[in-house]
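Residues and backbone
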Amino acid sequence: MFTKNREYKRRTRHAERTVEEVLELIKKWRAEAEKKRENGKKKISLADAAKEIGVPKKSLDDYMTIIRKAKEMGFDFCANLKKKFGTVRAFVKSGNGALSCVGDETQLNFH
């Protein structure tokens, strides 16, 4: 992006979230989408719900994809709540599903 004086202004990258923060964001996003609109009975779209919580839908979709793959591979979410989400990405990328068992199913059910 350029400013008025034509200097290049770097975009600052958001600090990486912890696994716990991502799980909470996903829960909040899905709960927001399930809410009914006040003036009607129509559900709010996932894109509108993402705007409401202030996180891009693309990021939330990416988190959901990684979480689902990690869950299938046996990632232990409970033991890694305080670690950065990159830990989950690395686990999925490595394809190593034998490291630990699956965490609490009730915490990961977003449907």
Remarks:
- The chain has five helices and no strands.
